[in-house]
Amino acid sequence: MIVVDTNVLAYLYLPGEYTAAAETWLERDPEWAAPVLWRSEFRNILAGYLRRGVLTFEQANSLQREAESLLEGAEYEVDSFSVLELVRDSDCSAYDCEFVALAAKLGIQLVTMDGKLLRAFPKRATALTSG
């Protein structure tokens, strides 16, 4: 099992530069987890695609449902104290620290392409492209 940040999910479902890397991770480890926050972040990404006319409403809705299905049973609440500790000790946002806190709670790696997270938490965060 791995924790993935929202952008990794977006790379998986929205074809682009890192889609192949996301697919490789999914084949290697199909058990993905994320904090509940991922849903709002993913919806926001889809909203941008909708507004730019890249996706139809039906496509966006379908992608949201697919992603929710992938993470079914693997969405977690994270402890605010843990998140704030990570914020205190880094220059990362509280949003981003939720993913690190979950990875720490579960004792697994966070897969991301976020440079700040990779620099701040090198023992916990792994680059999507390293797979």
Description:
With 131 residues, this protein is α/β, with parallel strands linked by helices. Helix content is 56%, strand content 11%. The protein has seven helices and five strands. The protein has helices at 6-13, 19-28, 38-51, 57-70, 80-88, 94-106, 115-120; strands spanning 2-4, 32-35, 75-76, 110-112, 125-127. Strands 3-2-1-4-5 form a five-stranded parallel sheet. The longest helix is centred in the middle third of the chain and has 14 residues, at 38-51. It starts with a strand and ends with a strand. The model has no long low-confidence stretch (mean pLDDT 97).
The best one-word shape is globular
Helical run tally: 7
- Taking strands numbered 1, 2, ... along the chain, how are they ordered across the largest sheet? 3-2-1-4-5
| Rounded mean pLDDT score | 97
Instruction: Calculate the terminal CA-CA distance, rounded to whole Å.
Output: 14 Å
- Let me know the number of strands: 5
Strand fraction: 5-15%
Low-confidence stretches: none
The rounded Rg comes to 14 Å
- SS-based class: alpha/beta
